[in-house]
Amino acid sequence: VRHPGLALAVALALVAGAPRAVDAQQPAQAQQPAHPAALPPRQANYAWDGDLLRASFSYKDVLADAALMKKISSGLPMVIAMRAYVYPEGQDAPVALATRVCRVAYDLWDEVYRVHVSEPERDRDTAAVLDGVLRICTEARDLAVVQRGLLVVGQPYFLGVVVDVNPVSPQMIDQMRRWLSRPTGSTAIGPADALFGNFVQLFARQIATSDKTLTFRTQSVVP
Amino acid sequence: VRRGPLLLLASFAFVLLPALARAQARRTWGATPDAPPPVSQAPPEPPPATLGTPVPGSTSAPSSPPVAEAAPPIVRTPGAIGLKYTLEGIQVRGNRSTLPRVVLRYVPFKEGDVLDVDDPELELTRFRLLGTGFFRDVQLSLRRGTKRGYVILVVDVVERNTVIVDDIWLGIAANADTLGNAQPLGPYGGASVTETNLAGTGIALGGAFAVADQQLALRARLTDPNFLRSSWIVEAEVLYSSARDLFGNSDVLVIDPTQTSAPCPSASNPGSQLSSSYGRCSDYAVAQYKRFGGRLGAGHDLGISSQIFLDYRLEKIDASMPLAASDHRGLDVEPIDFMLPRGSSILSMLRATFVNDTRDEPFLPTRGHRLEGTFDGSMTPIGSDYPYAKLVLRGSQYFPLPWAGHVLHLRGFAGAIFGNAPLFERFYVGDLSDLLPDRALDLAFDRRPAPNYLSTDIVEIRYGNYAAKVDAEYRVPLYRGTRSVYGVDFFGSVGLYGLANEQDFSTPARGYTGFATWPIDLTFNAGLRVETQVGGFVFGISNLVGLIPVRGQQSGAALP
Q1: Which residue has the higher pLDDT, B496 or A171?
Q2: Rounded distance, CA B554 to CA B560, Å?
Q3: Number of neighbouring beta carbons within 10 Å of residue B478
Q4: Are strands B84-93 and B150-159 parallel, antiparallel or unpaired?
Q5: Residue B176: count of CB within 10 angstroms of its CB
Q6: CB A77 to CB B117 under 8 A?
Q7: Cα three-residue angle B166-B172-B176, rounded to 5 degrees
Q8: What's the complex ipTM?
Q9: Given an 8 Å threshold on Cβ–Cβ distance, is A185 in contact with B148?
């Protein structure tokens, strides 16, 4: 081999090119409950609106934490995102998903809470006092869940519910963890230069996916 | 050329003086902790009476309340919260040692800005502050300003321990005495520690040492991640090493008038002996050298995932070594190149580094890649006695596997040196093989050659100008936690590496033929990777496995 530099360059191109075949930056999907049937039970009320199944249930305890109650009045927005997955009894794969997102911020000068609610059928803005916020943002009332046509008649179904307070998107978490993990100023190259590398790594795991997560399942309903 | 030390001192003064000035400034800021913010359900607390001036214990950004303007309306955007205020000031609370201005560096708002509560920069600000590593918790909130429509942004922080263990080296290595005679196994060790928030200034001060038999290396480093409130990272590092290295493979002829020892058998006629005044025999030829110098560097972000660093390094080297020495290379006897000139010399070097890092986590990544390219240039016009150029490229890719969090990690490394680089800048076989101790702070601890599982002439090479390595690592998660221990993974890795000099390509060592003329070897390791609250640790078995001789090669004899 008379041109070792050239040989190295070719080898390097092969090494660098190989990983490109796989997209490693696929954002993670929102986490579904791994074992929804095993979630703590909670009562829900079901009603059929024609062919549309509606459900009502409360998740007020998601804000039971004093720190969250403090945060809701911080003047900055708080997001309470609820996902209700429809599962056939005995299965872990959902057949439908209904979501409800409440975004609330305290208006410092009007001394009311400004609330924006997004549901499958409607978006609405309102102003409320704290009790009203808890009612609007932590209770699902006649939530449109699933059309009867998607369900098997006679098969029992239940809702697996995930409520996140201030959820952070997977893309944002990835971005922040990368940002946190960068070694500050490290120019480390060889093993001998590993000094001071990556000390910020220690804090990367502080990035949680939300301020709080509440999960439960409801009793079954048979279409 | 000999003005290097003066240049070094001047450079350090350039960096150190502003740092000292900052430390002095801290005394005048005098931040003390404030009470935690009021409970949320209470009406907003009234604004402080002296906004616009630093309040002891709860310092605000400079802010002067408007006096004559009409109060702006509070804007609300349909379809969102849509609240917008005018920012009257920024208040920092809970900082016991961190200077308020250090916190304010990471807050991209200023007095008079229109603050949209839906602005994602507010949440990013919290992450930025957590990312400094100075705080265990960061919360942002608003409170009323002095006039309708005005608010004060309150940043509540909870500080944390900022002393970090960066690295620990501990192992055993085969050594040699001062005359180069092989010695039994001996220990080596070292550690690197950094205070990431020195006196609350946000400047990092780090120190490291490595020690082994007759070797010592010290480092001290200062890093300002926001130099002059800019987005530039600036570093200064001072280094000292008293080091030695061993050359040859157990049958070395050394010409050194300062040393006397038993006469050496003649290579051509083992029955006869060379004069003791001509030379002596030993297992290894010993080169001793001292380094003193420093580095100045600056870094900058090139987007979210990329950074560039520029460094200048200047150091003085004093080397002491035999007048000459020779060793077997294959079937021939050749002179040893110590890769350092005798006496004093100067290394003056510029380095550029590019890093692209998309890994999801730094210590136990599951996806993403890390690419790194470095170019070193050491030239006579910038005062160096070592004219050379060095190019190093590294790449890592992590693949999440579909079952239970398993991860496949592929790595590649390649490097080339063109010219006359000093010994410690060359590629070292121990850095490539997991079965020999890596260098720590540029100290080489072990006298042994490569294990040579493939029976090639890699066993003849300790330092090289060309190096390459590919390896694959498989990781299996064993534990995940959220408190002291964040994660424990079992790992196993296997790879192939090569190390060569020009002559290994043009005139391979005589006595090796065919595949044996390729200076390559296998490497492998297995163990645990543990990520904890105080740092990440690797426990591998390769250091111990490497002590098992391959096919009876006790001392690295290099004949095929």
Answers
A1: B496
A2: 14
A3: 13
A4: parallel
A5: 23
A6: yes
A7: 120
A8: 0.76
A9: no
Instruction: Give the Å distances, CA to CA, from A112 to A103, A181, B40, B284.
Output: 14, 40, 13, 82
CA-nearest residue of chain B to A173? Answer: B360
Which of B199, B204, B287, B300 is closest to B245 using CA atoms? B287
Best CA proximity match to A218, nearest among A37, A43, A33: A43
Q: Which residue of A has its CA nearest to B219?
A: A195
Q: Say how far residue B500 (Cα) sits from the centre of its chain.
A: 25
How far is the C-alpha of A216 from the C-alpha of A204, rounded, in Å?
Answer: 29
Question: What's the distance, CA A169 to chain centroid?
Answer: 7
In contact, A127 and A136? CB cutoff 8 Å: no
Residue showing tokens 């550690």: B191
**Helix H or strand E segment including B413:** strand B407-419
Decide if B476 contacts B401 (C-beta within 8 A).
no
- Rounded CA separation B508/A2 (Å): 12
Cα separations in angstroms, A12 against B6, B116, B425, B433, B465: 40, 48, 20, 19, 16
With contact defined as beta carbons under 8 Å apart, do B139 and A74 qualify?
yes
Give the three-state DSSP class for A19. helix
Tokens encoding B548: 């098992």
A3, A10, A15, A136: best to mutate for the B interface, most B CBs within 10 A: A15
Please answer yes or no on whether B536 and A201 come within 8 Å at the CB atom.
yes
Q: Is the alpha carbon torsion for B466, B472, B478, B479 positive or negative?
A: positive
3-class DSSP state of A149: helix
Estimate to the nearest angstrom the gap between the alpha carbon of B519 and the chain centroid. Answer: 28
- List pLDDT tens digits, range A106-130: 999 999 999 999 987 788 889 999 9
Nearest to B415 by CA among B370, B466, B482, B365: B466
Long-range contact pairs involving B14-17 (C-beta distance under 8 Å, separation at least 24): B14/B296, B15/B222, B15/B224, B15/B234, B15/B236, B15/B296, B16/B222, B16/B236
d(CA B299, CA B233): 5
Convert the pLDDT of each residue in B327-380 to its tens digit.
Answer: 888 888 888 888 999 999 999 999 999 988 888 777 788 888 999 999 999 988
Hunting for tokens 């998903």 — which residue is that?
Answer: A97
Count of Cβ atoms closer than 10 Å to residue B121 Cβ: 12
